[in-house]
């Protein structure tokens, strides 16, 4: 009889399966809805959250989250992480912030074809989830190159066809970069025709507007109009106000958003929590001069009459736009042809050329840098008060606008390393600009709603187990403009699709990220 019971216990042990793969206990759950925190346990089985509450079941892994916040993984709805994701598929810079989903294809520039890109992502295997937009600028360039003209009817049909296929391949919607060439050469109506295709498949329109400085009001109106005319949600991406003479205009832009929402239109925003932007140094060069590409611009620079016109506009942009009124506000972040320039500002470089650091001489420095291979730059020209105004808006998500950094390369904007902890530390814990539940909502359920990403963005039964566990008292961004290559503190655990990818603040090496197809995927 004793032998029978031993055998029975052995057989039961062989078939025993714990109730949960991961059980998170003793944590304060901020569920992503904006509601107040609750103390609860979270049970995970396979890739889903199956229970939230007072749980007592067995688990393969138990995480004691005492003294920590348990929230949905953060969804970054604006990155340029395709620059680096194949070099750093483990995505530490983002995962150590708590980001579990990355989107790319922003500012009108995207991979094409979308289907092939998704296949490459899937075969590479990456740690976070991944989704992309189709870029209006990329589509236009594919059909028309960098020509500054309207498309022919045939060319427009060709662009419509490309967007149609991209939506079927799973793009989230259409992105535009109407500040950048060749998107800047597009009329509103041209963009509307492509946005209508995204609308047909349930996608959205997300735009780096035509201007974020003196013409910001007109640009917000244009973005909203495109959404209205194409009948789809419109997103003013990385919303900011550039140039000291324009500071404070966020009050007016947000009124325009509210008016459109009150009329029944879906308009949203996203932002990063910094007072500087980053893009190509070409942002100081007028778009008309860039038509036809690099060789054509170089020819125009060599023509004394055209050069004088270009220089005049560069000076204007240094004084009243991205230059923030002084060449010292433009800092080179990447110059692969001469890395000694990285971290130096236009004033310093101009002085090194033996010239006074005036806006006029800095314009000549821009010409010299472009001739030798161009560069990327950080532009300090944003007011913290505008950052706060935008952050308080209920329709504003948090997004980094950052690439996937290769640790130690260049002097990039710190946003790729610090966006989300910076919000939680500076604007929540220290300044109380928004509450913790509201901040988490802006990082989770709000972007999930805008992007039509189903069953993510909440700590909720039946939702995918994308979860971040962090210390609200110590979470902080360490990356600075002077020393950007520093990971953030305070994120203890991260789960992606139920798999632990960060444990004790260290990456586990796991790569469970999935492609998240858009609503038109066939």
TrEMBL record:
<feature type="domain" description="Amidohydrolase 3">
    <location>
        <begin position="61"/>
        <end position="502"/>
    </location>
</feature>
<protein>
    <submittedName>
        <fullName>D-aminoacylase</fullName>
    </submittedName>
</protein>
<dbReference type="InterPro" id="IPR023100">
    <property type="entry name" value="D-aminoacylase_insert_dom_sf"/>
</dbReference>
<dbReference type="InterPro" id="IPR011059">
    <property type="entry name" value="Metal-dep_hydrolase_composite"/>
</dbReference>
<dbReference type="Pfam" id="PF07969">
    <property type="entry name" value="Amidohydro_3"/>
</dbReference>
<dbReference type="GO" id="GO:0005829">
    <property type="term" value="C:cytosol"/>
</dbReference>
<dbReference type="InterPro" id="IPR013108">
    <property type="entry name" value="Amidohydro_3"/>
</dbReference>
<dbReference type="InterPro" id="IPR050378">
    <property type="entry name" value="Metallo-dep_Hydrolases_sf"/>
</dbReference>
<dbReference type="GO" id="GO:0016811">
    <property type="term" value="F:hydrolase activity, acting on carbon-nitrogen (but not peptide) bonds, in linear amides"/>
</dbReference>
<dbReference type="GO" id="GO:0016812">
    <property type="term" value="F:hydrolase activity, acting on carbon-nitrogen (but not peptide) bonds, in cyclic amides"/>
</dbReference>
<dbReference type="InterPro" id="IPR032466">
    <property type="entry name" value="Metal_Hydrolase"/>
</dbReference>
